[in-house]
TrEMBL record:
Heteromultimer composed of HisG and HisZ subunits. Belongs to the ATP phosphoribosyltransferase family. Short subfamily. It comes from Anaerospora hongkongensis. This is ATP phosphoribosyltransferase. The gene is hisG. It is an enzyme of class 2 (transferase). InterPro entries: ATP_PRibTrfase_cat, ATP_PRibTrfase_CS, ATP_PRibTrfase_HisG, ATP_PRibTrfase_HisG_short. GO terms for biological process: L-histidine biosynthetic process. Its main location: cytoplasm. Catalyzes the condensation of ATP and 5-phosphoribose 1-diphosphate to form N'-(5'-phosphoribosyl)-ATP (PR-ATP). Has a crucial role in the pathway because the rate of histidine biosynthesis seems to be controlled primarily by regulation of HisG enzymatic activity. It catalyses: 1-(5-phospho-beta-D-ribosyl)-ATP + diphosphate = 5-phospho-alpha-D-ribose 1-diphosphate + ATP. Pathway: Amino-acid biosynthesis; L-histidine biosynthesis; L-histidine from 5-phospho-alpha-D-ribose 1-diphosphate: step 1/9.
Amino acid sequence: MTSSDMNYLTIALPKGKLFDLSANLLAKVGFTAEGLSENSRKLVITNEAAKIRFIITKTQDLPTYVEYGAADIGIIGKDVLLEENKNVYELLDLKYGFCRLMAAVPQSLLQEKMSDYAHMRVATKYPRVAEQYFHSLGIQMEIIKLNGSIELAPMVGLAELIVDIVETGRTLKENNLIEVASIHPATARLIANRVSFKMKFDRIHKLSEDLKCLLESEAK
C-alpha cells in the first residue's frame, strides 16, 4: 500500500442486482462520485474532493479485489462470500438483496429424505458450498460446476439435483423443480481488506457505523 493509496478509500461495487442498491445506500451517507454507474466505461471512478475511488467488478471477482487490497472495502452477497471463501473482514449485514441458497430436484425425483439422494449428481454455480453442505449430512455427491442456466441441468439429464440461489422460487416452479433443502440465507454484506481495516480504521469504522445507523433508522 503506497502513501498515495493511504489518501483514498477504494470501494468495490458488484455488477448486477446489488449495484444500484449499494450505490444508493452509500450515497445516503455521503459516499458518491460523479458518473458512478454500472455501465460506466471508466474502470476507476474518483471523487477527488472526498478522496474516494470506486471500482466496479464482476460479482465473483469482488472478494478477490478486497482480499488483495486492490479495494479497501466492498459490498457483496453472502452467497459469494461463502463460495469464494476469501480472507476478508465481514463488517456489516446490509439487510438487502435477500435470497437463499437451496437444493432442488425435479418433482419426478423427489425422495423422502436427503440421504436418499446419495451419489446423485448436483449441478451448481456454488461447488464449494454444495460440497460442504452434503458433506455435513454425510452424503457423497458428484458435483458438476456450471456458470449459468442451472435449472437446465436436470431437464437434459446432466444432473439430478441443483444447488442454486433463489429469491422468490418462481423460476423453480416454472421449471418443475421442488426445493428440498434450504442451505443458507444470503444478504448483501460490507467487507474490508484486513490491512486496510487497520491502516484506514477511522474512515472504514465511521462508514460502517453510519451505515448501521442508517439501516436501523430506516427499519423503524
